[in-house]
Amino acid sequence: MTDREALLKKLSIAQFAAWEMHVFLNTHPDCPEAVRKFKQYTNEAKVLTQEYESKYGPLSSEQSDGSSWLKGPWPWENTGGEN
Fold first, then answer.
1. 35: which residues sit within 8 A by CB, 6+ positions away?
2. Dihedrals phi, psi of 29, to nearest 5 degrees
């Protein structure tokens, strides 16, 4: 696993955990532990997103000025020899 893949995996985990806490809070809005964890995971995802984008570029078109978003390689132009 490359450093880029590892960072993206950590980001995905933090985003998933934040979403799950968000869903939990829909039915348990007065749970202080859930609120704390939601804030923790949301902040962690924000920090990891900033780290990823500073190293590898934007994750979505909303964070792009347009020029870096269009640079390759595209997923189907994988030159790493992996499927």
1. 25
2. -70, -15
CA 53 from chain centre, in angstroms, equals: 10
Give 23-68 pLDDT, tens digit per residue: 999 999 999 999 999 999 999 999 999 999 999 888 876 655 555 5
More confident residue, 56 or 80: 56
pTM: 0.73
Distance of alpha carbon 22 from alpha carbon 62, whole angstroms: 22
Q: Enter the tokens of residue 38.
A: 């939601």
Closest CA to 57 of 47, 69, 45: 69
At 61, is the secondary structure helix, strand, or coil? helix
Cβ contact 68:60 at 8 Å: no
Residues 77, 28: Cα–Cα separation, whole Å:
46
How big is the chain, counted in residues? 83
